[in-house]
Amino acid sequence: MDIRGVDPRDTTWELDHARYRVYFWDRANAVSDEYEISGEVDVEEVLAWAAQFAEEHRYTVYVSVKTSGDSGLIRLTGVLGDPFARPLSAARDEQAAESAAIRIGPFTPG
């Protein structure tokens, strides 16, 4: 984390209420449910709602922004990267198992 002092005069605009997106990830079925939250809502309310609504699913909360007419998302919290990607440890375990099977070979009764 990098922390530095700033000059508050370096910004040209400010919004009191943002538009948020919350994605709930169902990894078992490789699908997601997406919601947009807007109005007079603070980020704390959005985070509390997401945590309560998520149940057993993982989720990501974004703030939705537009720059030069293009829409984009900035992640605030939750899953980082591809939520459907296999964890690196699972890929390593699978690769190690395949390697061991090649070295040992099939069992032949003698």
From TrEMBL:
Protein name per Swiss-Prot or TrEMBL: Uncharacterized protein
